[in-house]
Amino acid sequence: MGCSKWRAAFNFGLLKAQSRLPVFLTMILLFTYLFYSLNGYCDSLPPPVFDHRSRNGVAPLDARGAEPLGAHGASPLEREQPEKGASPSGNISIANSFGSKKFPQAIIIGVKKGGTRALLEFLRIHPDVRAVGAEPHFFDRFYDKGLEWYRNLMPRTLEGQITMEKTPSYFITKEAPRRVLSMSRHTKLIVVVRDPVTRAVSDYTQTLSKSPGLPTFRNLAFRNASAGLIDTTWSAVRIGLYAKHLENWLRYFPLSHFLFVSGERLVTDPAGEMGRVQDFLGLKRVVSDKHFYFNQTKGFPCLKKPEGSSRPRCLGKSKGRPHPQIPSEVLLRLRDFYRPFNLKFYQMTGHDFGWN
């Protein structure tokens, strides 16, 4: 009797366990499915924002110096000047989310009032060139913000595209060559030069438009007018000492890394000069004669209207200002002053710009 009772209880328990087994297996399968589903969802999420407190304050780069997509937020300057297609909040829209931010492979480093803005605008026609519109001034004013801040200013580029920026004051900044070298020793450097006398007058004209009470050109150009001593501390004069500035750069980069663009030829033969620039950058010659026409009013070439635009593209009103009348004896004295510096510059670059 007792054995029968225990056998019956055992059979009942076994039956009960067997009835629970399918439920148990179903739960295992369900948890397994949920685990792998959630794991795949997490993998699809964007990577976490880079912690600026990590080692060296710079995110890891890939082999090309590119930033992993989505690794960093927009810099303050980038938020002020969002890329075309960016949302009002400063976030890059889906249309602009392709590619990665890289350090510039080429920089227009000078010179002020030489034609750097024209060169940059002409280059931006090329589909393989992506450039910052505003001058970053990283290597002369904002170097303490760090390389990561600088790279965040750059536009996103795809494979095969070149990242560029232009800041004309780099050429005359003593620390700039060493700082650019610390970023990359492969950087290509473009210098747009112009007759230093004409350049100085253009520089003065720009400053005069902002400060109407400025002393005369003669008073600023001469340290001692009666003795005819030129004041080389005046920036309008100092910038034109191209040979001295180039000497500083050649301590860090070989001459083969430089292209010297004639500001005069950029006006008289923009397509020809742009051909040299595209060759130097290793680009296909896309920018050609068909892109330019000469604006008689402004006195320099403008870009023909692109498709979808109602009018041609010319540089702003600040370009092509009429120069004030400068006494001829002042200009002649300046030409005499610059002559030995010009000749040395011709020898250093292997190119006669014909300023004499």
UniProtKB/TrEMBL annotation:
Positions of the UniProt region annotated as Disordered: 70-91
Domain Sulfotransferase: 104-339
Active site residues of this protein: 113 (for sulfotransferase activity)
Pfam families documented for this protein: Sulfotransfer_1
Primary site of residence: membrane
One Gene Ontology term, aspect cellular component: Golgi membrane
Enzyme Commission (EC) number: 2.8.2.-
Membrane topology category: Single-pass type II membrane protein
Binding site residues for 3'-phosphoadenylyl sulfate: 113-117, 194, 202, 319-323
GO molecular function: [heparan sulfate]-glucosamine 3-sulfotransferase activity
Cystine bridges: 302-314
Keywords in alphabetical order: Disulfide bond, Glycoprotein, Golgi apparatus, Membrane, Signal-anchor, Transferase, Transmembrane, Transmembrane helix
Residue stretches spanning the membrane: 21-38
Record localization: Endomembrane system; Golgi apparatus membrane
Family to which the UniProt record says this protein belongs: Belongs to the sulfotransferase 1 family.
Protein name: Sulfotransferase
Species: Oryzias javanicus
